Amino acid sequence: MKKKKLLVKVHEASLSDFGKYPGARSIEELLNFGLVAIDKPVGPTCQQIDAWIKKILELKKCSHGGTLDPRVSGVLVIALNQAVKLMPLLLKSDKEYIAVMHLHKDVSEQKLREVVKRFTGEIEQIPPKKSAVARKPRKRKIYEMEILEIEGKDVLLRIFCEAGTYIRKLIADMGKKLGGAHMQELRRIRSASFTEQEAVLLQDLVDAYKWWKETGEEKYLREILYPGEKVCDFTKCIVVKDSAVSALCHGAPLSTSGVIMVEENISPGEHVCLLTLKGELIAIGKALLSSEQMLRGKKLAAKIERVIMPRGVYPKSWKKRK
Fold first, then answer.
1. Mean pLDDT, residues 131-160
2. 154 is catalytic
């Protein structure tokens, strides 16, 4: 993951006792606002995985970010309890896959590479009949598509794409240019910033949780649970003053006067994470200005779309107008 570059507007540190650094949270707090990456096996549905994790971890709710059908394996990000509020970001995050395309006839390598190149970039797809969305043409971006190996009529592909891309349909559409093809196998190797190296088997999660409950040893469970703030790895961020936190928790828009640091290259209309100086996620917002514009002037920098932090964690330092 590329290191973020933050542009500093004001040099300020959090000297208050309010809030808590995400890395200092207890296991109970991580279970209430955390993320876990499961290496989903072929067979169960994502809904079954959700139900099993909810039962295993004794949660009120959990949800997955980006569905994998039963025949597909790989990285499945699960949001725990209050982290379900992060679904809008997880569902829209980019994905990466390894796929086996089986050709229906012999094709030259040159022709194969030409078609792969043609389907890299912006493409148009009509969702398959079994999909849960309307079957209307929609555009998706294939950022990268690489041929890893060719063995007879089987082609191993790495595909890095925008969320909502149907890989099975992508391969079928390429097949129309190649005399026919279908997807033989598919594995997701990355979802958002979670890679398959970070994903764990369901049994590993069961064992780590039981070990913590029985012995109090946190080590193994801490290696699996991530604070909800991990969504900031793939979302632009704005760091705000402690004095602005409570107002944001009540849904007030963020003024540039409350900004301390902004990530570079934020564009108006882009989703952003609003963070405290301790790195806690306050809310998900939509930028109203560019990064450079947020560093000067007295305008609104972002509007709130979803409040994440509970009210009362930071004290009020603002008053309602009478």
1. 91
2. no
